[in-house]
Design goal:
Blueprint lengths: L1 H21 L4 E4 L5 E7 L5 E8 L29 E9 L4 E9 L4 E9 L5 E6 L8 E8 L5
Antiparallel strand pairs: 1-2, 1-8, 2-3, 3-4, 4-5, 5-6, 6-7, 7-8
Length: about 150
């Protein structure tokens, strides 16, 4: 009985550690250019998403909220940038210690890329977008954690 109790405790401890690791990505992140902030959260399907919640310059040259003007879908070009989902469908891979099988949308060019995310040794969140399943080709960005939403 004692061995069963110890084994149960060890399994519980490992599962709590894995859950803590996977949720480490949740929170507010300042993008590399420091011109926007993204909130990463776990959606109802258990996947990680990231929503654009703050822009350094939220208004265009006409004083209106910036829109997704470069979106390939014409019907989405008039939607405000603030509030759009940039990161979608990320899943935690405990073995590789990364979030994978997701996509990242780049509103600066209107393109969506396959992507994965990982932390470096300094706690910086690295996100790499790539095409055609070739992880070695693509572009990375580094985001820094913030304690609260910017206003």
């Amino acid at each position: 009985m004692k061995h069963v109790l110890i084994l149960s405790f060890m399994i519980l401890a490992v599962s709590i550690t894995v859950k803590a690791q996977s949720n480490r990505v949740v929170g507010f992140w300042l993008t590399e250019k420091k011109t926007s902030q993204v909130e990463i959260y776990k959606n109802s399907a258990g996947k990680y998403e990231g929503k654009l919640v703050w822009l350094d310059e939220p208004l265009d040259e006409n004083g209106r909220p910036k829109t997704d003007k470069d979106n390939p879908e014409q019907s989405l070009r008039s939607r405000p940038l603030k509030g759009i989902i940039l990161l979608k469908d990320f899943e935690w891979d405990a073995q590789d210690k990364e979030w994978e099988n997701g996509t990242i949308y780049d509103p600066e060019n209107g393109k969506t890329y396959d992507a994965y995310m990982w932390f470096d040794d300094n706690g910086v969140l690295n996100i790499k977008g790539f095409v055609m399943g070739m992880r070695f080709m693509g572009r990375s960005t580094a985001w820094t954690k913030e304690t609260r939403k910017r206003e």
